């Protein structure tokens, strides 16, 4: 008789709950066939490669949690407890972000991992059951550039630089604070790689146990991709504001009304003396000319009216035009075949997405696949599942925008 959906995961979660309540773990539930997985380190047992992989995950999390503690107590705590303010409140906020939340999550995760008796499936379930909690890394990663800027500012001040060096000496750290503030960014993007090692050396690549390991990999891959995507959106939003401030002669609405900045680049243009700087947004193509640090507006084409004409003679050339004014073409030359492929692919995608008629999804995918442009495939488990349960939305409405499974971008 088949177990109802979710029963297996819930059983493991219950085991973790019991472990946190100091219940005896002895042996974790085994495979559905009734073969329990013995805890690592039994009498006379020689650790397998898989045992060592699992042990590495636990040990590296222990080291990571210790490093986070040194930041929270050895730096942030000393700044807060100082009799005289060493850093301004806004500097402290920018420098450390939500590092205390990260430390709390890592400490809890470490307790769960240490309760797994080195069982690889139990380790995998630790990540599945806590998937939504990793959303706090989005805020930290988005703040990281501000953290670097704040640290640079601190190191220009003799008083602040001396204080941070004294903290480093008390902690006996060989590396300065900046190296430790980078660790959360590195760690969140490494979890899925560590879990992949478990799957690679898992003995029975079938059944519920293996499926749970795969789900953990997909879960943490989705987390990493979501964070990378939010980081990219954040950077593009900042760049969009810069373009707006540097744009001369533009009488249209605020550029944010045209959606996200997708691509920007400089192209040679036929019958025009100067190169053209192009900015491709979700809803419009903006064509400008560079003038010093500024961009002079030349023209724009809504993506819903955009027409793409690829050259059959030159592998680097393509033309863009308004489909109602086809004679007003912008003949462009890319710097490489890859650049041309990237631009034509995204232009095709945005033409399809902005087309007034409803185009079936399969037809869109078929058209885009004709480019032979194959982005990485998303995991079996859709990031939308994680997004719906995450409460962290550092970019406001932008953070709630779902990532599409099989997205061609």
Automatic annotation (TrEMBL):
The keyword Phosphoprotein applies. GO terms for biological process: regulation of establishment of cell polarity. InterPro entries: DBL_dom_sf, DH_dom, PH-like_dom_sf, PH_domain, PH_PLEKHG1_G2_G3, SOS1_NGEF_PH. Keywords: Phosphoprotein. Pfam families: RhoGEF, SOS1_NGEF_PH. Residues 254-352 form the PH domain. One of its GO terms (cellular component) is cytosol. SMART domains: PH, RhoGEF. SUPFAM superfamilies: DBL homology domain (DH-domain) (SSF48065), PH domain-like (SSF50729). Residues 49-230 form the DH domain. GO terms for molecular function: guanyl-nucleotide exchange factor activity; small GTPase binding. This is PKHG3 protein. It comes from Phainopepla nitens (Phainopepla).
């Amino acid at each position: 008789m088949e177990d109802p959906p979710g029963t297996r995961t819930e059983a493991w979660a219950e085991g973790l709950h019991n472990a946190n309540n100091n219940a005896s773990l002895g042996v974790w539930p085994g495979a559905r066939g009734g073969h329990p997985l013995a805890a690592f380190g039994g009498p006379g047992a020689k650790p397998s490669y898989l045992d060592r992989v699992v042990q590495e995950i636990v040990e590296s999390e222990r080291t990571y949690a210790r490093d986070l503690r040194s930041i929270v107590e050895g730096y942030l705590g000393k700044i807060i407890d100082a009799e005289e303010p060493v850093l301004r409140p806004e500097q402290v906020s920018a420098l450390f972000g939500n590092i205390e939340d990260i430390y709390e999550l890592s400490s809890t995760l470490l307790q769960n991992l240490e309760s797994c008796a080195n069982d690889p499936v139990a380790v995998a379930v630790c990540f599945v059951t806590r998937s939504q909690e990793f959303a706090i890394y989005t805020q930290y990663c988005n703040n990281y550039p501000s953290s670097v800027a704040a640290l640079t500012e601190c190191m220009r001040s003799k008083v602040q630089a001396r204080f941070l060096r004294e903290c480093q000496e008390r902690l006996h750290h060989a590396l300065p604070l900046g190296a430790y503030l980078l660790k959360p960014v590195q760690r969140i993007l490494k979890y899925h790689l560590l879990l992949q090692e478990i799957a690679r050396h898992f003995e029975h690549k079938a059944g519920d146990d293996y499926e749970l390991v795969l789900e953990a990999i997909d879960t943490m891959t989705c987390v990493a991709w979501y964070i990378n995507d939010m980081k990219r959106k954040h950077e593009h939003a900042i760049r969009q504001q810069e373009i707006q401030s540097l744009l001369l002669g533009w009488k249209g609405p605020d550029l944010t009304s045209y959606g996200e900045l997708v691509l920007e680049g400089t192209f040679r243009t036929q019958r025009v003396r100067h190169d053209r700087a192009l900015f491709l947004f979700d809803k419009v193509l903006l064509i400008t000319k560079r003038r010093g640090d500024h961009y002079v507006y030349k023209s724009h084409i809504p993506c819903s009216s955009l027409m793409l004409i690829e050259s059959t003679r030159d592998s680097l050339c393509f033309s863009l035009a308004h489909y109602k004014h086809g004679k007003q073409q912008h003949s462009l030359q890319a710097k490489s075949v890859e650049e041309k492929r990237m631009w034509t692919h995204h232009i095709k995608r945005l033409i399809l997405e902005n087309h007034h008629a409803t185009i079936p999804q399969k037809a869109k995918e078929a058209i885009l696949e004709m480019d032979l442009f194959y982005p990485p495939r998303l995991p079996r488990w859709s990031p939308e599942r994680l997004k719906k349960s995450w409460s962290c939305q550092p970019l406001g409405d932008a953070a709630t925008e779902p990532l599409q499974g099989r997205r061609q971008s």
